[in-house]
Write a structure and sequence with these properties.
- The complex is a heterodimer of chains A (147) and B (456).
- Chain A has 147 residues and is of the alpha/beta class.
- Chain A has one domain: Nonspecific Lipid-transfer Protein, Chain A, CATH 3.30.1050.
- Chain A has seven helices and seven strands; from the N terminus they run βααββββααβααβα.
- In chain A, the strands form two sheets. Chain A has a five-stranded mixed sheet. Chain A has a two-stranded parallel sheet with strand order 1-7.
- In chain A, strand 2 and strand 3 form a beta hairpin.
- Chain A is globular, with a radius of gyration of 14 Å.
- The two termini of chain A are 23 Å apart.
- Chain B is mostly helical and 456 residues long.
- Chain B has two domains: 106 residues, no CATH class; 267 residues, Ribonucleotide Reductase, subunit A, CATH 1.10.620.20.
- Chain B starts with 9 loop residues before the first helix and ends with a helix.
- Chain B is built from 20 helices and no strands.
- Helix content of chain B is 60%, strand content 0%.
- The chains are: A alpha/beta (147), B mainly alpha (456).
- The interface between A and B is medium-sized, with 27 and 38 residues.
């Protein structure tokens, strides 16, 4: 059972979407996105019709990403549990809704132009996280991502 | 030798009955050596029983017997019987022969045509084969397929700073003298270009969606009357805005010369996506017991319609106005009342983000290549923002409609208005951020009415 957050967890989701014809049907996705959970940062690379790479990254790497998704550990947990419960994010837990609900935003970037990749590929990114409903996620202890 | 008693497989008999082939004809064909699957194939291709009978007769060496109607027509125009029989045995249909006769084709012409195996052998001018274009090009598909970028190789990938041709000659082809001009008016790369055009075109093609069948329309359930009226007013406004952009861009397409076909192609997808927005928001308004609302005052529309050069239009319509539209789609997605609206706003959001990607990268391209246009662009934005502010003052429907929709009803109007102001704040902040990326700072020059949204 992969633990969130970890490279193993993102790779498990990556394998699901890369074998999912529905993900391909959403169209090409070309972006480098980050996921920040506490002090843990992961870089997800999407190219053409698939997620091609997942790796652990650093604060400095955020500058090279189009954008990154950042929220409190509890909010990540709530989002993923909502997806697991419903098979996909419900109306109040989509990436865009969370972005507009967080005072500092959920999708962040150092570049106001490249950040728009969050909008351009929004449904594919949503599909990526929705795919986590198909795996059993074990959540890391909060102190493991904040230490 | 014909075997009149050949057994007919059941599948073939059924097909013959379906296609109107008598069984005696089928038996005759089988007896002549035809295979059951072959006959089924002929029937599926539309070969009639009469054609088959004529073919078999010709095969048997007895010639093909023309119908009385064909014989009479042939006699009338002077086509001899043997010519008719020869044509029929070569597979000509009676109706075609009658047509040729009616068209005045003489017996001698028909005979010459058949002598040539049915093909004309004119003297061909093959000088065009020696065209001095770059020959031997072999573009290779990438992970994205055989994209526009993948075929932009060698001379074909050369996008000149100025395009010298008035005609529709494709870039990389060889011009010939005397061709009439197409009336293009844009011949400079900096006037239209962005390196993002080709990949954005491919992205738009790949990420298309279909409102009629992709939107989960049945998920829409009756809403309180005020919320439904607000939803319909918003849908009317967004549909109208999308139609206006499609009309404006449609007017610019024929101005752009063929040398910049990547821009023309990408703009075609923007027009298509605007059409899709017109469609989907109109459908939303008419899908839940409501209807259309009132039209917009249209002040900001005029600024885009009246633009006198392409970059002016892009700055006002695709940088300024589309930044607002994107924020409206994003907030629409957040406050969607059902999965259908969630889907509509979410997909429209993706499309609009592509439009912005082109628009701001074009602006940056202009500023990098024509630094002297900086003040000119600032003035366009002054004008566009001013018209947008006028719209805000004159429009008494859009703001309350969004506020009621966001708040979930008239009773929550304050909460709704706060969300509306947040939406306008997001629009202004993102608009300024994108302009900054394009090397244009408007922090101090921003219209005060728009600035107010980020100072709250």
């Amino acid at each position: 059972m992969p633990t969130f957050p970890s490279v193993e967890w993102f790779n498990a989701v990556k394998d699901i979407v890369n074998n999912d014809p529905n993900f391909r049907q959403l169209g090409t996705v070309d972006t480098v996105a980050g996921v920040k959970v506490g002090n843990k940062i992961y870089e997800l690379t999407f190219e053409a019709f698939e997620c091609t790479n997942v790796r652990e990254a650093s604060e400095n790497d955020l500058r090279d990403m189009d954008f990154w998704l950042e929220q409190h550990y509890d909010a990540w947990k709530e989002m993923l549990e909502n997806i697991k419960r419903n098979g996909a994010a419900d109306l109040t837990h989509t990436l865009n809704t969370l972005d507009l609900s967080a005072p500092e935003g959920f999708a962040r970037s150092y570049d106001g132009y490249r950040r728009d990749a969050f909008y351009r590929f929004n449904q594919s990114l949503q599909d990526f996280f929705n795919a986590s409903a198909k795996i059993d996620t074990q959540f890391a202890a909060p102190e493991a991502v904040t230490a | 030798m014909a075997n009149e008693t050949a057994a007919i497989p059941e599948k073939l008999a059924q097909k013959a009955q379906e296609k109107g082939w008598p069984l005696d004809l089928v038996q005759q064909a089988l007896g002549a050596g035809a295979q059951p699957d072959q006959l089924i194939g002929y029937m599926d291709q539309g070969v009639t029983a009469e054609q088959a009978r004529q073919f078999l007769a010709a095969q048997a060496g007895g010639g093909v017997e023309p119908s009385a109607e064909l014989k009479a027509k042939a006699e009338e125009v002077g086509w001899p019987l043997d010519l008719i029989q020869q044509a029929l045995s070569m597979g000509a249909a009676e109706s075609d022969l009658i047509n040729y006769m009616n068209m005045g084709v003489t017996a001698e012409q028909a005979r010459q045509f058949m002598a040539g195996g049915g093909q004309q052998q004119p003297q061909l001018d093959l000088s065009w084969m020696n065209v001095p274009t770059e020959w031997g090009t072999r573009a290779r598909p990438t992970k994205h397929g055989l994209t526009l970028e993948a075929i932009n190789i060698g001379k074909y990938g050369d996008v000149p700073d100025a395009w010298p041709y008035q005609t529709e000659m494709p870039r990389g082809a060889v011009p010939i003298p005397g061709v009439e001009g197409m009336g293009y008016s844009i011949f400079e790369k900096q006037e239209v270009w962005s390196d993002a055009c080709a990949p954005l075109y491919e992205e738009a093609i790949q990420r298309r969606w279909r409102p009629a069948t992709d939107v989960p329309w049945t998920s829409i359930e009756p809403l309180p009357d005020d919320v439904e009226r607000a939803a319909c007013q918003i849908a009317t406004y967004l549909s109208e805005k999308a139609q206006m952009e499609a009309d404006v861009l449609g007017r610019w397409e024929p101005e752009i010369s063929y040398g910049y076909h990547e821009v023309k192609l990408y703009l075609a997808t923007v027009i298509f996506e605007d059409a899709r927005a017109v469609e989907v928001f109109r459908k939303r308004a008419l899908s839940n017991g409501g209807g259309l609302g009132i039209q917009s005052p249209g002040w900001s529309f005029r600024a885009a319609v009246d633009a006198r050069n392409f970059t002016e239009m892009v700055a006002i319509q695709m940088c300024l106005q589309d930044s607002l539209t994107l924020a409206e789609y994003a907030f629409g997605e957040k406050y969607a009342k059902n999965p259908a609206e969630k889907f509509i706003f979410g997909r429209a959001l993706q499309d609009k983000a592509r439009h912005l990607n082109y628009a701001f990268s074009h602006l940056k391209y202009v500023l990098l290549h024509r630094a002297d246009r900086r003040e000119e662009l600032q003035r366009y934005l002054d004008k566009g923002e001013g018209m947008l502010a006028t719209d805000d003052r004159k429009d008494n429907a859009t703001k309350p409609a969004f506020a009621i929709y966001f708040g979930g009803g008239k009773d929550n109007i304050n909460e709704g208005l706060a969300a509306y102001n947040a939406m306008r704040g997001l629009f202004v902040r993102q608009y300024l951020d994108r302009l900054k990326w394009a090397t244009l700072d408007r922090t101090e020059r921003l219209n005060p009415q728009l600035k107010a949204f980020i100072e709250q």
